[in-house]
Amino acid sequence: MMDTSRVRNFNQIGQAAFGIPGRVIIYILYFINVTGIVGDYIILAGQSFHQIANGAGGLTENSWKLLCAAIMWLGCISLKQMSEAAVLSLVGIITSMGAILIGVIQAFMYPYRDDGLVPVLHHRATHEIARGSGVALALATISFAFCAVSVMPSVESSMRRPDKWNSVLGLSMAIVGITYIFVATVGYWAFGDQALAPFLDNLPPNAATKAAKILISLHVIFASPVMATSFALEIEVALNITKERLSRVREFAARLLLRTLFFVAMAGVALGIPFFGDVMALVGAFSMSLLLCVVPVACYVKLRGWRNISWQLLLACALVMCLGVYICIMGSKGAIEDMRKDLAANKAV
């Protein structure tokens, strides 16, 4: 039998630690996070399909974004529990691994070179050991890579064997970390400071690149309903939108309305800020940094009691929280500046 006294999601953890204010703050951060992530996925999928179609069918880039958002919305409204998302997650993993493999091979085949032997996609690319002004923005983007952290309590609560959670979490974070480090290393080696976001835009527009763009688009289309459903379920539970309280028809209608409103907000982000890298950096800086580095540590210390934690662990907790605050402030500043420049340049075209 399920232990009903145990917290089941991120918001309940916040409430257990800091009461209703803690729950409300996490709701707000969670909503910003999911809206930005899914909005960014809509941008990526829409731009990729638009580039592949090359104007076929008369669809504009925004039309492709709305089409992708509609498919994601259908996946979201069809899910009633997180346990039903297992197939979507599996397909998402397979498609992303395929896109990564093609992208990395292409990067090795077509790196930036200025010797006339291969087509030059980038000009005057340079490599630096580090650039101080870009550290916060880089950390914000790295934070985005771990966006699934916000849905992990919900995933753990839906597992048939929650006792295996530590192993699952450790393995998944190791795979994500190693994969991103590998792709980032190859990308910077190949394209230097001229590297573009998304990564596949650095590659020549050949058949392999198109295949990779289709795979990564399918990945985000399958991943988005999982992210959106996790947040929607928590709101629905909070609003008591259940079959036990409402009839089957009214419960479905309420769920349909709520999730549709979410996707309207997400599509609005995709249409209003059409820059994948800028949205990724801003979401990573403003919300993901807090959900990844500040909120879990603050809740852990409050629930455990700082007197019951060794000074070494308290020091580590303080350093992690300081890192999160630094990413939030400085990363958001850098992301907003880049976004303003891109919006101004886009209007000037």
TrEMBL record:
Pfam families: Aa_trans. The chain crosses the membrane at residues 24-43, 63-79, 86-109, 129-155, 167-191, 211-235, 256-276, 282-301, 313-332. The keyword Isomerase does not apply. Belongs to the amino acid/polyamine transporter 2 family. One of its GO terms (cellular component) is vacuolar membrane. The keyword Transmembrane helix applies. The lineage of its organism: Eukaryota, Fungi, Fungi incertae sedis, Zoopagomycota, Kickxellomycotina. It is found in: Membrane. It is a multi-pass membrane protein. Residues 5-336 form the Amino acid transporter transmembrane domain. This is Amino acid transporter transmembrane domain-containing protein.
